[in-house]
Amino acid sequence: MRIESEIGILRKVILHCPELALHRLTPDNCDELLFDDVLWPEKAFEEHCCFENILRSNGVEVYLLRQLLQETLENQEAKKWLLKYTLKRLYHQSDLGNKLYEYLFTMDAKQLAINLCGGLTWDELDMPNAKLLSEFLSRNDFVIPPLPNHYFTRDTSCWIGNGVSINPMYWPARRGETLNIAAIYKFHPMFTQENFNTWLDGSELKSEFHSIEGGDVLVLNQGCVLIGISERTNPQTIAALAHRLFEKGDKEKVIAIEIPKNRASMHLDTVLTMVDHNTFCTAFPCNIEDIVSWIITPGNNKAGLELHKAKDLRKTIAKELGGGKVSFLEISDNPVIQAREQWNDGSNLLTIAPGKVIGYECNIHANAALERAGIEVLTIPGEQLGRGRGGARCMSCPIERDL
């Protein structure tokens, strides 16, 4: 398992098909759960199946997160670990948390995986002595909250070189996702039998001030990583990740890129993805040369970090890619079209081979610009999935690519 680029032929990927968690969305809770609206779950399921089928038909091995979690929970130590940390996060070692632990531990692995991803309400809880407490709560209040954003598997973990960053998430609504994926990496045989580094472990970081999400991390090549400084990825966590990468000698440079802190550009990959050798698709609302970026390198004796402001992002990236010409394909030069297709993740593309990408069919202008540049675009429906504010790259966690 290794990721050294954004464009090498994709071999293995983790997806999560949204099911029960999307049925939990209501007009009253969707804001808290980071959705702009409620989705049509059955349609979202169909769209995700289309995405999965395109990957499989192109030779990619697809691993489904909930199945991996179920297999992980067959291990009693994994079950103890995940329940301990999940309930500690939600109930702070209270008496109720202890009772819930005892109850949930009796669940079989399949049902527990369903509830850890999709949530559990008081009405569904068949636990002795829970009735008194439930009298004070709505029958539809959550014992375990659903994780509808779990289908954006890129964010909770991202592979860099021969290791993974298990990411501490910015919003509380997503922190349960980190625990689920951490349990998989720590206990599932597919990973325990592999030798890889863990660059960061968001399930163990104590500080609430640490956050980084995989949508902000682009592996440029074997020596360099691009990381967005965004609403959800802060500088101190970028520094911590850079230090670990440099310490182990896996990377020589991190380029940190400032992006607008708003809903339309929540991660770097909503405004910039790599689609071919020396070619990117971009929705940056200004000239690439004007984007503020910083070059992070190891300090003397690797004891610290050196930080330099980059003068020109285009030239900085070109230098890292060997000094040749670098192209940035814009969605459109029409600001209205650009804004609409950025909102619909027109540049949030999953590259499965050099010059071959997956994107939403609704982004006709972005797709046309890509095709004019010789990029093959495999389209998927995103009427419902896209309303979660993420495209094909967001919905995938590559774990193995060719160099």
Give a verbal description of the structure.
- The mean pLDDT is 91.
- The strands form six sheets. This protein has a five-stranded mixed β-sheet. A three-stranded mixed β-sheet has the order 2-1-19. A three-stranded mixed β-sheet has the order 5-6-7, with helices on both faces.
- Helices cover 33% and strands 22% of the residues.
- It is α/β, with parallel strands linked by helices.
- It has two domains: 10-68 and 148-401, L-arginine/glycine Amidinotransferase, Chain A (5-stranded Propeller); 69-144, Arginine deiminase (Pentein).
- Helix 3 (65-73) packs across helix 6, helix 4 (76-91) packs antiparallel against helix 5 and helix 4 packs antiparallel against helix 9.
- The chain has helices at 20-23, 41-57, 65-73, 76-91, 95-105, 109-118, 131-134, 153-156, 175-187, 189-192, 235-247, 313-320, 335-343, 364-372, and strands spanning 10-15, 61-64, 120-121, 142-144, 157-160, 163-166, 197-201, 217-219, 224-229, 253-258, 272-276, 279-282, 293-298, 305-310, 327-330, 350-353, 356-360, 376-380, 397-401.
Write the layout of secondary structure elements.
Layout: E1 10-15, H1 20-23, H2 41-57, E2 61-64, H3 65-73, H4 76-91, H5 95-105, H6 109-118, E3 120-121, H7 131-134, E4 142-144, H8 153-156, E5 157-160, E6 163-166, H9 175-187, H10 189-192, E7 197-201, E8 217-219, E9 224-229, H11 235-247, E10 253-258, E11 272-276, E12 279-282, E13 293-298, E14 305-310, H12 313-320, E15 327-330, H13 335-343, E16 350-353, E17 356-360, H14 364-372, E18 376-380, E19 397-401
Parallel strand pairs: 1-2, 6-7, 9-10, 12-15, 17-18
Antiparallel strand pairs: 1-19, 3-4, 5-6, 8-9, 10-13, 11-12, 13-14, 16-17
Helix pairs in contact: 3-6, 3-9, 4-5, 4-9
